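Give me the fold.
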Amino acid sequence: MTTEAAARRMPGAPCWVSLLAHSLPATQEFYGALFGWEFRPGPQHFGPYARAFLDGLEVAGVGELAADRHLPVAWTTYLASDDADVTAEQIRSCGGTVGVGPLDADDAGRMAIASDPQGAIFGVWQGRAMPGTAVSGEPGTPVWNELVTQETSSVAPFYEHVFGFESEAVVSADFDYLTLHIKGKPVAGIHGVGNALPRDRGPHWMTYFAVPDTDAAARRIVELGGHVLRSARDSAHGRVATVADTEGAVFAIIQRR
C-alpha cells in the first residue's frame, strides 16, 4: 500500500470512490480502456457491483443503477469513519441528511450515503475487510477529492465538526479555497466557485484521477465516447482537465508535477 493510500484511510479522509452507472459493462469497458483497470465482483447489496483493480490493488468501485432508482450518474467520494452510525448521527445533528444506511456491505464494511447542508452528496465508509483504496498517486488512481460549492464559509464548519478537519484557506482575493487537513496532512479541498457553480449539478464532490499525460488522456476520453468539459490547463499542482464518461459522470484528470 502506498503512503498516499495510507493517509487516505485516516478517519475523515477520502478513502474510496464509487460510481453508479446505467450500464456496468459499458462503464467497465470505458474505464478499463482509459486507466487499465481490471474488474472483479464486489458486494451486491445495491445490485450489480464491481471493484476496479490496478496491478492487483483495489482502486475504485462501479455499480449499476436499478432501473427504478432515479439517481444521478456520478462519482461519489467516501469519507473514512471509525463508526458509520456515530458519523451518521453527527451528520444529522450538524444539518446534513443521511439518505441511505448506515448498512453493512457484506463483510467489506459499513456504509452510508449522505448530503451536506448545501446538498452535496458523499459517502461514509467504515472499512472492515476492505478498508478503502489500496493505491493512490499512481496513474489510474484517485489522487485528490474536492468539494465544489458556492462558498466555502457556508459549508466548511459542517465538515470540520463532523469529520474533524482543520481547514487552511488559500490566501487570495479572488480564489475561495480551503484545504482540509487531518493530523497535519492535506486530504481534501473545498472550492467556492460562486455563480460559476453548474446549475444542473449544484454543489458536488469531484474526484481527481492521476494520468501520465493530461492532453493524451483527454484525447483518449473523446475517442472512447466521453467528453472534455474543460480543456487541459496548468495549475499549481499539475496539468488538469475536467471530463465526463460516456454516461456523463464528471471527473477530473491530472498530470502531477
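The chain has a mean pLDDT of 92.
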